[in-house]
User: Fold Iron ABC transporter from Cohnella abietis.
Amino acid sequence: MNSTSVSNKNTLNLHIPKNFTLVLIICLILLGICVIASLVFGSRPVSFHELIDGLFHPDVESYGANVVRKRVSRTIFSLLCGAGLGVSGALMQAVTRNPIADPSILGVNTGASLFVVCGIAFLNISTANQYIWLALAGAAITAVFVFGVGSMGRGGATPIKLVLAGAATSAALSSVVTAIMIPRSYVMDQFRFWQVGSVGSATWSAITTFIPFLVIGMLIAFITAPALNALALGDDVATGLGVRTGTLRLIAALAGVLLCGATTALAGPIGFVGLLATHVIRLIIGPDLRFVIPMSAITGAIILTISDVGGRLILSPGELEVGVVTAFIGAPILIILAMRSKVRSL
Assistant:
């Protein structure tokens, strides 16, 4: 038996959580509310008529209608980035078997940021395609390094060791990023908002560049979900079920890196979305990744979009970058989760 047979067997024995349909409906309603709020609220709120004109009447050239049209790309970009970060968090938690794993906590976002900043400072890159490939390289190298460091010593890659390795790596790489940017004012000016995470500069070009990476990462996540369920039972049990654990971890980790690296390249290092989205869904519908992964995508989109709207309202008529908002919400939750994990380990 191989991983394919495990996947087919699990698919045939699909048990839908009893509250899944209700949760899905509620999440879709919340998603719709977030989309409307993202189009309506900002430095200049728009009325219902302006919203309708902006979406369905291209011949209307009023100020409010034009504001709505400009917010459409930002809203779509926010939804896509949130979905990518949500699924990336679910994959990283499954691969590391670490309930508090997240691209930002493991330092993957910072590694992607470092490579992008180096590209701008030393290679004069300026296009979304160039940003993405550099970010993917940085994210992949950082992920391998953090997992390698966290695997050293007795007990292998435990959740706490991975978090500590990720935090230390992230701090070190952040210092390097700052050291590169400070003497180069043009780099700092270009990415001072990107560095904290923002979807405010979204363009249709960035969206079309991002979509292929998002689709590939999502497909890999859905395909590997059944085998990842077996991996949650432990490597020995998964191997007995015919899962090639090493290959599975590599493929799933690559998908996670692809999603968070591409997001970081275009929106900056936005943290805690994957952690929050996956934890909320696991608590509500259970641990089955065949349901957790798609629902993490929807929940991640909700969290990032509503955080973006909140950032606009808090400092209106200015705005607070979405990366600051998600960090403000996610950091206390991470502390609580870490404390609970410590208590259980005793």
Remarks:
- The radius of gyration is 20 Å.
- The CA atoms of residues 74 and 202 lie 5 Å apart.
